Amino acid sequence: MVFQNLVLDGKDHTDRINGFIDQLGINDAAPGRISGQLVIDLYVGSFLIGDIDTPRVMQEIHALEGHRKSTTKKPTKFKKPPLKGLWHKHHLALGIQSLAHNILNESERTDYVVSEELNDFLNSDIDEDRKNHVLAASFAHAFSHGTREKRVQRGAMTGEWIIFAKHEGQKYYLCLGQHGDGEEVVNKLKGFPMSEFAFLGETLELN
Length: 207
Hints:
The chain is of the alpha+beta class. The protein has two domains: about 130 residues, no CATH class; about 60 residues, no CATH class. It contains ten helices and six strands; from the N terminus they run ββααααββαααββααα. The longest helix is centred in the last third of the chain and has 27 residues. The chain is globular.
């Protein structure tokens, strides 16, 4: 894939996005099956907005291709319009919002368990202020690093979406999206993806 005359916000980004493609090995991840729209989403999210960690997205694509293990939830098929017939796979977005969402989800699943060593410490004669400080630090670790580690181990991390289609035993990677973005994703699909992958016209009913 090579872009020509890519202009975003009135500026020519052609050379930069082509270098971006080469640097990340995008053409090698799923040859002929990654849409130009997905590449633009990655580029804009990485360099113009700053909310996308492109290597994480590529890791999930490699996982979908069977080349590595995923740390996020299993792919899910859309069951309702307007994206019915397509699939999505989570990738981890940048920022505190994504981390907080995963921590809260995990904290609802499990209770906080006090270790034997911490219990002995709390029952000792050490100053109460010191005890409170240590207990607070222990809770903070459990509800950040601890919960995140558990979700990673289960492959249950959630985030934003990689939208893809399945056709004749292959996966075709179309664009990025997130919860509530159905109509925006549809508008994206009417651009690059529909012109690149003709079978999408049979998979979706886009007006």
